[in-house]
């Protein structure tokens, strides 16, 4: 499974999802889905905009995890 770590990067930069949406010209709805890992796809164009605004690499935003790791974290909550 691919996990999106936008929230961690925003936190490190002391920025909000709202700010990122405005700067990257991405709707709050779509960005919210990404941040909550509730989407199955993302346009390369959007990914590039996010990386440009956050001044980071794609590898900083996307993380590949095993399904067992995610299930384990869900059980801990």
Automatic annotation (TrEMBL):
PROSITE patterns: HTH_CROC1
Domain HTH cro/C1-type, chain residue ranges per copy: 20-61
Parts forming coiled coils: none
Database matches in InterPro entries: Cro/C1-type_HTH, Lambda_DNA-bd_dom_sf
Gene Ontology molecular-function annotations: DNA binding
Name of a matching Pfam family: HTH_26
PANTHER family noted in UniProt: DNA-BINDING PROTEIN (PTHR37301:SF1), DNA-BINDING PROTEIN-RELATED (PTHR37301)
Annotated protein name in UniProt: Cro/CI family transcriptional regulator-like protein
């Amino acid at each position: 499974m691919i996990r999106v770590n936008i929230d961690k990067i925003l936190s490190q930069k002391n920025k909000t999802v709202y700010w990122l949406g405005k700067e990257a010209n991405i709707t709050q709805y779509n960005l919210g889905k990404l941040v909550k890992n509730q989407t199955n796809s993302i346009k390369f164009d959007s990914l590039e905009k996010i990386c440009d605004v956050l001044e980071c690499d794609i590898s900083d935003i996307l993380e590949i995890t095993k399904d067992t790791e995610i299930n384990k974290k869900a059980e801990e909550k």
